[in-house]
Design a protein that fits this description.
The protein has helices spanning 2-30, 46-54, 88-93, 108-116, 130-144, 147-167, 196-203, 221-227, 236-242, 245-249, 258-262, 270-274, 280-291, 293-296, and strands spanning 41-44, 61-64, 98-102, 121-124, 176-182, 189-191, 207-208, 216-218, 231-235, 265-268. By secondary structure, it is α/β, with parallel strands linked by helices. It has two domains: 41-166, 3-Layer(aba) Sandwich (Rossmann fold); 176-296, Rossmann fold, CATH 3.40.50. Strands 5, 6, 7, 8, 9 and 10 form a six-stranded mixed sheet that branches.
């Protein structure tokens, strides 16, 4: 009587063991295998490319777009064109296993076409703020499988900006700053509210001189007179194209401004100033040195 009972108990334990093993195999099979980090990456957007380099993942880049002008090493990579006028064929020819694009890259039909091919696309938000820079860094780092490095870089950027903000904490007067993107034969193209220019000006302790205008608009003589900027800011390439500061400050729509009378014109690299990438604290500090030299003086 004892032996059959023992056999039955043993059989039950064996059956339970087999069931447990089967359940374990099901769990293991249900867990997705972690994909390998991408090795052939195309970056679209100057700030995105800067972040890839800052993360030390530039060895994976196979191409960038024409706005990717920093660092200089990016010039050696194939160029897929301007970020808002992409074409599918040159991109597909490079056989990427990941594309990282700033959110306004396009045109939309090309982005949709690229998605249909199965290329993984990661779209990165482009909010012009320090929080936006942090989110941009973390998004790019996650896409590259470099989350830890991304967190460290984001913390470094936030700390650098905090140091600049601390120096500007006591500033009470905020000069009126006019940013001119380009100047040609017609009306200059100026930045109003809700632009990256307005955002970086505010971070540097200024305010946009065109508060009643949204976006980038041609600057009429009437709007220029009403703006009465204390400081004029232009991209370095615009300064070079115009032949120097005097050529800009002497223009009819600007000559009567406080900025022209005091000779206060600042030229900065456009990607540095407007890109809202890893170098944004540097951009804010440099602009703040022109707007508030006393506050930014090394103590």
């Amino acid at each position: 009587m004892i032996l059959p009972f023992v056999s039955l108990a043993f059989a039950s334990r064996a059956f339970a063991s087999r069931v447990a093993m089967a359940l374990l195999l099901c769990v293991v099979m249900a867990v997705p295998v972690r994909a390998e980090p991408p090795e052939r990456v195309i970056s679209v957007g100057g700030a995105i490319t800067e972040i890839v380099y800052a993360l030390g993942a530039d060895d994976r880049l196979v191409a960038v777009d024409s706005t990717s002008t920093h660092p200089a090493a990016a010039d050696d990579l194939p160029d897929v064109g301007y970020m808002r006028r992409l074409a599918a064929e040159p991109i597909l020819a490079l056989d990427p296993d990941l594309m990282i694009l700033v959110e306004d890259a396009g045109p939309p039909e090309i982005i949709a076409q690229l998605r249909e091919t199965g290329i993984p696309l990661v779209t990165v938000p482009d909010e012009p703020s320090i929080a936006g820079v942090r989110d941009k860094v973390l998004t790019v780092a996650e896409a590259l499988g470099e989350a830890e490095a991304g967190a460290a870089l984001a913390a470094e950027i936030e700390a650098a900006h905090a140091a600049v903000a601390e120096r500007l904490a006591g500033v009470t007067e905020r000069p009126r700053v006019l940013f001119l993107m380009s100047i040609g034969a017609g009306a200059p193209l100026a930045a109003g509210a809700e632009t990256s220019a307005a955002a970086v000006i505010a971070l540097a302790g200024g305010r946009t001189a065109l508060e009643d205008i949204t976006g980038f608009k041609p600057l009429s003589p009437e709007a220029a007179a009403a703006a009465a900027p204390d400081v004029i800011v232009v991209p370095e390439r615009t300064l070079e194209a115009m032949g120097g500061a005097e050529a800009i400050l002497s223009r009819a729509e600007l000559a009567d401004s406080p900025a022209a009378r005091d000779g206060r014109l600042v030229a900065m690299d456009a990607l540095l100033l407007l890109g809202f990438g890893p170098r944004t604290p540097e951009a804010v500090a440099r602009l703040a040195e022109s707007l508030h030299p006393d506050a930014m003086a090394v103590r």
